[in-house]
Amino acid sequence: MPYIGSVSTVDELPDGEKLELLQGTLEVLILRSLKLEANHAYGISQFLQQQSDSEFLVDNGSMYPALQRLLQREWISAEWKISPNGRRARYYSLTQAGRKQLVKATSKWERFALAMARILAPEG
Amino acid sequence: MRRWWSKVTRALGRRRNLADELQQEMDAHLQFLMDENLERGMRPEDARAVARREFGNMTRVRERSYHSWQFPAFESLVQDVRYAARGIWKARAFSLIVILTLAVGIGANTAIFSAVYAVLLKPLPFPSGERLVWLGESSAKATGISVTWLNYEHWRTENRSFASMAGFQKMDFTLTGRGQAVLTRAGVVTSEFFRLTGSHPIMGRLFTASDEEPQTAETVVVTQAFWVKTLSADPEIVGKTITLNGTAYIVIGVLARDPKFFLQPIDYYLPLRPSPAQASKRDAHGGMHVLGLLKPGFTLAQARSDVDTIMQRLAEADPGPEDDHRVFAEFLSAEQTGDLGHVFVLLMASVCLVMILACANIGGLLLIRMTTRAREMAIRTAIGAGRSRLARMLVTETVLISLVGGGLGILLAGLGLRAIEVLGPRDIPRLSEASLNVPVLSFAAALTVAVALVCSLVPMLSSSKVNLAILLKESSTGSGASRIGHVLRGGLVIAEIAVALVLLFTSGILLRSLWAAEAVNPGFESGHLLALELQLPPLPYKSDAPILDFYRRLEAELRAQQGVESVSEVNCPPGAGDCNDWWYSVVERPALRREDVPLTLVNMADGAYFQTMRIPLIAGRALSDEDRAGTPAVAVINEEIARAWWKDPRSAIGQHIKVGGPYMKGPVVEIVGVAADVRQFGLDSSSAPEIYFPPAQRVDGAMVVMIRTRGNPENMDAAVRRTLASIDGNVPIQSLKTADMWLGATLQQRRFTTLLLVLFAGIAVILASIGCYGVFNFWISCRRQEIAIRMAMGAGTIAILRRTGRQAARLGVIGLVAGLAGSWGASRWLNSMVFGVSIHDPVVFVSAVLAAFLIVLLSAAVPLWRATQIDPIETLHEA
Questions:
Q1: Among partner residues B24, B32, B61, which is closest to A64 by beta-carbon distance?
Q2: Domain layout of chain B by residue ranges
Q3: pTM for this prediction
Q4: What's the complex ipTM?
Q5: Domains of chain A
């Protein structure tokens, strides 16, 4: 499995490989993954992988610091709970501020994706 | 802000928790991955290995997560501090000496500064205290004379430079009707006084102009302390009366706080009402002085000339004997502290010298330490520490050690202040208010930071020239021969010796002065002498007869007591200062011009006084109990007056003194005797002219009964009190103490100053010795190999001593010369405090130089001895 960092440049993007996350996208995706229910780090990475049809591979070296940053900004909160299969895990959930941030970031990313698609779409 | 704070707490306290939590979280994550792999049917070992691979680099996850918690700059500061603490701990002996040196320096400075602040710098506790002016009158002979009521009235209404003026004076009254009669202190003031001092009542009202009307009822405003202590905090006190000197005064108010305007605590305030004579005559002096509030923008000089103009106008409009009187005006703050400023500047300067010594010592120690650490620095540089990082580490170390020393110094200052409170003289205004308040603590903090900065320059200077290659090749102690370090160390030795010498000299002069003052013959025998100070209340002691009768009976009763040798009364015993003074002239001599008429102390003493006190009579006779109201008026003069007018004191007998001088009313008295001088102003004063009158011809209710005892005078205390109570229980005792205590009190301030300076000189000597020892010791260590080679080549002990000692001697001599020059300069400063010795007293100079020389000798002795004990073979093998 190729190793993917968090910074990308166009010429580095290899054909047919998994997509690398753009700067700042991982945090929004984590917020999104917690929108419906609390989850632990492993669960979040599973969620992102499944929802992107395995296009995104989340590197733990990026995800853990991203979780810490979100905690510091108090957009998410953490607590230790027992998972359904009986394992103790640290569950993250959205805070009120996190929810607001998610709404803001979602609309920003939608506009961004739309603009990108318009420019990159085939002419005619 | 909150995020910033959460970072700080994370960085400091929860660091370990966070790391633990992260580890647990990653373990859980691995467990999930393993569970999944097991479900897929892997063997447990494989499942674990694959999970690890899937998870990725755990260390990298950990590091990058840590990074998101920390403050890089703050973290490295914490790291610096940790390194510094480790460095300090590693060199414990060195650090302890530095910290103690700093603590002593900063502690002494802070304690003295807090005293200076309280006495000299702190603003007066009155609104616009900086504009308050103390006013009196002055003549050609004296300044600060009391102001007459009429002059005050003219000043108050005609001046242009003062916003307001108040008259004030202090008086003692006997309070009766509330248990035992007690002596109480009154501030007698005009109504503006309270506004000028910012006083408010907690009950009732303060004075208005109507309280000063002569016909109205007597009123009094009591202080809160007096109200609580003596009036049992009676909530209904306003409107009730208290009896002072037999007269009823209506209490009209209670003060919220005593303005502490007078040096002694005041019990209550009375309105100042002029007597009929004072209200009509411009030269009728009471004891009143004037407090004025300068209008903003006016200078003291303008105010003086303004009031002087009024005095000149008055001299023309209402001529009298005091036409030459002018105003005397000083800012209240300056008037209250007087020449204390001088004393405190001296103390502050000496304590600053101690601080300089402390800094020099620490600088020297750091310099030496840096040289021995040169190798450590070189290694650190070699393994990649940047120059700025190294410098930061050294500075952090110095700053940390300074902070510890400063903190300890503040603790020491606190102790010092307690000592000052106990030992300090009572007559220094506001000294008891000295405390570690905000300005004082800021001073200590600023001092600590300054010291830290100065001291950290030393390692910076010496570390900037580190040459890696050379240092790593050299032996472990380093050569220590860098030129800059050499010059700095030599300079330190010179400075330490010079400063120590100046302080030794200064304290020596003061010590000699104190000894001279204590050895002064007071002019009488002060041992076995008890002094009972009394002030008879005006009722029933209204006229001369009851007063004389009271003292006659008291003397007779006391004389009958066991252990009493003789008893006599005097108005003003030696050491009591100036109880009264007046002009005089000699009738048989041509009249002097008005401005040349001399002043003399005026005293009253009964027949047995000179015999009781053992004051020698030089000519004529003593006063006797036969000198009564009806008999010819007589007086005894002291030797000072006799020698001023007559070659032989015996010629004075039979001549006449005109009291008041040729231009003032006053009786003419015949000189019947000449007595030896006594130190009326205290031991460290010179003798002053004095005239003694028989009490019966000049009656005063305030007398001091001198009791010559056979045994310890303090044992008579109870008997004296009993005797007094048996004659009149309503007479309060003002004081009952031995004559030695009266005299000793006059030296209290001198003792205090001298004690402090001797203490500073002692600290200076210790610091200088340590500093010089350190430098000399270091030199020898650096030159071990050179010395070993010389020895190997056949140099004897004497030759080694001569070579190594020469340098110490040269520095010592330069230091001594610099110190002598400094002492010569300092002696001019001491002028006003020197008593009984010359400022350039050779004994003090020589002993100070000898002591400083001893410092050099002792601090050089051990290192030099070590130099001679070097074993050449062993030392040369080390290399």
A1: B61
A2: 2-70, 146-324, 340-518+748-878, 538-731
A3: 0.65
A4: 0.80
A5: 10-120 (1.10.10.10)
